[in-house]
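Technical appendix A lists one of the benchmark inputs used to test multi-chain prediction within the project. The record comprises three sequence entries:
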Amino acid sequence: MRKLKVAILGSGNIGTDLLIKTLRSPFLECVLFIGRNMASPGMAKANSLGVRISDLSIEAIIREPDCCDLVFDATSARDHIYHWSLLEKLGKIVIDMTPAKVGEMCVPAVNIQKCSLYKNVNMVSCGGQASIPLAYLIGRTQENVEYIEVVSSVASRSAGPATRANIDEYIETTEQGIKKFSGCDRAKAILILNPAQPCIDMQTTVFAKVENPNMEKLKTVVDEMVNNIRLYVPGYQLVVPPVFENNRIVITVKVQGLGDYLPRYAGNLDIINCAAIATAEEYAKEYIRNLDYDDCDSVEEPYVNCID
Amino acid sequence: MRQDLIDIIKEDCALVTTGVSGALSALKGECVLITGGTGFIGTWLTELVAFLNDTYNFNTRLILLSGRAYNFSAKAPHLAMRKDVVIIERDIRSLLDIPSDVSWIIHAAANPDNRLHASDPLKTMDVIVKGTESVLMAATRLPNLQKFLNISSGLVYGSQPLELETIPESFRGNLDFTAIGSAYAEAKRMGETLCAVYRNQHRLPIVNARPFAFIGPYQLLDRPWAINNFIRDSLLGGPIRILGDGETVRSYMYPSDMAFWLLSILVQGTVGLSYNVGSPDGVTLRKLAEKIADHFPLRPKIISRVAEEGNSNHSKFVPDITLAHKTLGLSLKVDIETAIKRTISWNRCLLE
Amino acid sequence: MSTVLISDPTLRDGNHAVRHQLNAAQVALYAAAADAAGVPIVEVGHGNGLGASSLQVGESLISDREMLEVARENLVNSKLSIHVIPGFATINKDLKTAIEIGVDLVRVASHCTEADITQRHIGYARDKGKEVYGVLMMSHMASKELLAEEALKMESYGAEALVIMDSAGAYLPSDVTDRIAELVKSLTIPVGFHGHNNLGMAVANSVAAVQAGATILDGTARGFGAGSGNTQLEVLVAVLEKMGFSTGIDLYKMLDAADIAEKELMPVIPSIKSLSVVSGLSGVFSGFAKHVERISMEYGVNAKDVFFELGRRKVVAGQEDLIIEVAMKLAVEGAVK
């Protein structure tokens, strides 16, 4: 089975977790795992899994531009801007895992087909991935949505120094995503860290202020959506089905991670990575379809209905 | 960079090198590697070497190694574009090879920002310990290494005991090695131990410097140190808020002195020794606040709040520099008044 | 004579008691009275601080801007202070504006084990020349050593004082003595204490705090605040005077201010109800009280059971959405029985 060749830029936890997921994917092949520091544990992990590694950062791809078609960039916002300027010229598809967010926001359950038209997509944020499908449904099924709010609680252990230094950015990005996908122009995002042991799974609640809520309609589409999301995020669960309480719509979901590289409680990191893989696989399917089409072209007649 | 800022630095370099540039002549025509080369220490060393090249035809080449070199050309474009300065962007922890024509190394790769030490003590230690190991290992394969200067830190001494007016290099220090707050200092101590081992086992010509505290151009005022806060708050119109009764004692060296001292220790320091680098002239925070306030026509108010009656919490952090002074003939050319004055000028220019 | 610096969050913590519905007139009235009494610091805002008006913890009647502007107008000698929790308040949307409106003191708070999320907000406020304190909330949930470690981080970021909060009203005086002593020993900056009265210990705890070396105390008029309320300020001032501390506050005028607060701000005077005792014992954030009451009734479960379950799950402030989940679960379990 033909696979899409991908490279992973960034050998930290996100990059390494992505690697393990690509190894499981029937559509993706990781040809290069790239970092800046040979001493990082991710590099050792990749090497032990038999994956080619490099510490040349973006140089590794510049030197061998044909090695891959898609790049996961799990470095930093600043570095991504630089990487994209080079990768765009090389015609690569880039999935941006950093806060840079220069491309199109992608939430697979909502807009994956549209996203495969773009060359640079990002996964918004962890809270965004969990809540945007629900915000989208609220926007679609309810009249006069005045305001949408998303609260995410994550385990302290799953929030590293980078997350902690960028909480404001997380909030602004998530709010942007909510507004875009729900069509509502007032949104708020809140992030809470909880140090309880054993670690809590990521929990996200979506609230909405709506004039005349249609809860029945919402419940049906939410159930459907949750099942769709579970196809690529198996640990996604509905904890509080849509309910109208204290004049607000309330929906709570929980995400438990797959435990690939990071522990299960890091559902916040897992959901972003699962979404990224699902997106990459969509590109892969597109790519394989085109390949098959091209192949057939030269061997048989094209699959076109001719009018006799 | 604006000419008036460049001029301030040039004047500073001229003052510290007048009459004594000969002491550094061993660097003429040589290639020097500075790790952490785009940081505060690295930038000043580059300014001084550039000055020696331009004024005294030293013809010294610099390689600046940095994990985050991207903002150097914004910070000091006049240095970044020099032909005698090469910038290599690389994580110090995975440094494998050093160009073989490097004959002098100044290892300054670390982050002295204590906010980072608080938020990410793990990374802080990792960079210092793994980074020092990597560069020492790579240095063992150099054909012509003359000297390796390890930039340690005055913080290796832990807290200064009350009975010591100034801390001599012989003081073994007192650090609580179980406290996360000791992460940076313990890592620097490990750095010196690694250097001792490489000096003996691998015969590397290593010398250590223990910098204390500095104030001057290129140092950002948002750094959470008393003198930076006082100057920043004064530039904002005040008030200057001193924590405690102001009797805490600190000392500050101007960075042109720092750069000259470091190059002197590199060239003339005795292998195996550690040298304190800083000002021996202690000043109370209250006095410091007053000296700073004096520079503002609209004198900012000075407020001090006592933490607790009876709990004096008076700390001191002042180096004994007898070793550098007696054996290397080093002294301070810039006093605290001038240091403050020039720092305020620099920052005023930046704000314009 | 030793001085104790009083910080008065009547117009912030008190907002919890009225579901954040304090109006501009009330803010103006109390601010003026506190100012006249010589209260050094007056803290104003939504119960959960700047930018916290939300469906999660409750929407405030008036915006942060309105509250701060009217308070600013009515505070002449007293400092205007705000409570800021990163994760709720962002620098761009919330803190920047508050500083432009003219707050004097910014108290940046985190859960007691998560101090490093405050680095940027503390740094921003200091860069703007504002006075900044660090605050550790729900401080009963960490050992004194861990509190000291987290406090040191805030000190390194530029916090000029460190206040620990007994957000659940869970402490006994000996707990406070231990923790404050450890902090005073470890920090260079002054240490403060913010008490809640769920177990009737707020004033006693505050006394223990100053005896252990704290020099900053929070208190509100009549104890107006979350759950069973805060340390009752006018009582605290009287007690401190009796102990020989100076606060700079005019006791008579403070009593007047408390009378005004009682008449104009609060529908009921705070008291320790059964649920408050339970929330204090279970160590749950006092601000949850009204939400737990309401939701327990909706789902037909015992509010005390909900509190104990929340305590067992070690919820922190800002996790009010968990209340529905817990109530639902208990309702199902109850039905099964």
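Chain A has ten helices and twelve strands. The radius of gyration of chain A is 20 Å. Comparable benchmark entries are summarised in Table A2.
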